[in-house]
Design goal:
This protein is of the alpha/beta class and 141 residues long. 21% of the residues lie in helices and 29% in strands. Strands 1-4-3-2 form a 4-stranded mixed β-sheet, with helices on one face. Strand 6 and strand 7 form a beta hairpin. The two termini are 31 Å apart.
Length: 141
């Protein structure tokens, strides 16, 4: 039997309520490149290129429930990202630090949370110190 192996996230989908407002936020403020949706789609959706994957914005009459759920976008310069969001009047929500990274959250016009993160060094689970807390090393359950 072939080995099943996930290689990466293909796409993330979030709900939006206003195509023009979402296009402005994701295209102009975030600077993502919009790409054509499949020609077979007969519903309103915006697709954006994320390099190795895509972001799909699904137009619905009602926004999604506000929650801690989010997706993260990696950036090369976290300080430039903060300045860009502030320049556009987007509120920044600073959050708990991760060793080797700097990050914060923003929300799109429909309240979808987006984490903006810059890694200064690769994440090392062995150095995080949380394996025992999470029961991953077999010491707790």
């Amino acid at each position: 039997m072939p080995t099943f192996h996930v290689t990466h996230i293909d796409h993330v989908s979030v709900l939006i309520t206003d195509l023009a407002r979402a296009r402005r936020f994701y295209g102009e403020i975030l600077g993502l490149r919009e790409i054509p949706k499949p020609r077979t789609f007969t519903f309103s959706v915006l697709w954006y290129d994320l390099g190795t994957g895509q972001l799909h914005l699904l137009s619905k009459p009602k926004a999604d429930t506000i929650s801690p759920r989010h997706f993260a976008l990696r950036v090369a310069d976290i300080d430039a990202a903060r300045m860009r969001f502030r320049a556009h009047g987007v509120a920044i929500d600073e959050t708990i630090l991760i060793p080797g990274a700097d990050r914060f959250f923003v929300s799109d016009p429909d309240g979808n949370r987006i984490e903006i993160i810059q890694w200064f060094e690769p994440y090392d689970p062995a150095r995080s110190g949380a394996a025992a807390l999470d029961g991953i090393d077999g010491t707790k359950s």
